[in-house]
Amino acid sequence: MSFLQVRDLTVTFQRSGHPPVRAVDGVTLDVAAGQSVGIVGESGSGKSVTSLAIMGLLPRRGVKVTGQVLLGDRDLTTLTPRQMRDVRGSEVAMIFQDPMTSLNPVITVGRQLTEVITRHSQASRVDARREAESLLRRVGIPDPARRLGEYPHQLSGGMRQRVMIAIAIACRPKLLIADEPTTALDVTIQAQILDLLRDLVSESGCGLIMITHDLGVVAGLCDDVHVMYAGRVVESATATNLFGQPSHPYTDGLLRSIPRMDDDRGAALHTIRGSVRDLVPWDRGCAFQPRCDRAVDACLAGPPAVTDVSVTSPHRARCIRPVNLPASSKSVSTVKGGVR
Ligand SMILES: Nc1ncnc2c1ncn2[C@@H]1O[C@H](COP(=O)(O)OP(=O)(O)OP(=O)(O)O)[C@@H](O)[C@H]1O
Hints:
Blueprint: E1 2-13, E2 21-32, E3 36-40, H1 47-55, E4 63-71, E5 74-75, H2 81-90, E6 92-95, H3 99-102, H4 109-119, H5 125-138, H6 144-147, H7 157-169, E7 175-179, H8 187-204, E8 207-212, H9 215-221, E9 224-229, E10 232-238, H10 239-244, H11 249-256, E11 306-308, E12 316-317, E13 330-332
Parallel strand pairs: 3-8, 3-9, 6-7, 7-8
Antiparallel strand pairs: 1-2, 1-4, 4-5, 9-10, 10-12, 11-12, 11-13
Helix pairs in contact: 4-5, 5-7, 7-8
The structure holds adenosine-5'-triphosphate.
Residues 13, 21, 23, 41, 43-49, 213 line the site of adenosine-5'-triphosphate.
């Protein structure tokens, strides 16, 4: 049973003198307790704006958000800023790419952590400090009592990201959103942080949305995956199905662009031609059409239909000519969850 249901979420930036920018266009997704859901796509595809809209962190002026973000039976898009502040930290929490911009550089780690604990609970300062120490231990920081007295610049990048995770989980949120949490870290530390997130999800039963451009991160961590392109979800599937049988030509291209150890040495790497800026507005046809090797004239005959590409499990692609299409698949216009 999903405790987070995002329905038809659309975000439009409106600036005077500029045409509106629809950064997120009809995103629908579900997250269940203990489930990790990946949102992947190139830079500019709308991943971060989707997560900021779910968190209620977009500015109210100049930004129009429509659709629903249902957490249990509450629609977070209808809450006041004050109500949303209470939800953040206690029920939903977010981890960003660069902990140095999220942590206050002139306040000790211990004070930043205990402030979060006392703001959302009745804990005394002594209890909050004990809890802070136990949280640092939980996220794998050695000698936590000493670390509590240190400032962010005294910690390594990996340690700072662990502190951010400790702050995020301090109030036992139901939902954790991680936006490229490992991009700024070197590879071995990345793996440790991903292991930590996996353990936290399985032990606490919280849901995780992992925002990333890195398909390797999704493969190692996520149960379900949504691939975004130009503001829309173009493919939704379990991670196993997405990697085993990619259906949207964009997903297929992304997967084929990953270099493999068994590739011939000297063989040219696969690339998706053009850039995400070469796009068709979705109401005129498929936004990916200018870059797609499978494109036909019909791809520009209006918004692409959603195709149910598996008969055995939910797997949908917003494409009229999907790759790996089984004979019994069909087009669908209204589906629950994922691509719509
Ligand atoms: N404040 C803003 N005003 C206008 N357009 C914006 C604003 N913020 C984001 N956008 C646009 O929204 C689109 C989606 O941006 P978003 O940051 O969600 O992409 P992303 O997939 O997360 O990329 P990245 O991985 O680079 O962060 C982009 O075209 C971006 O230029």
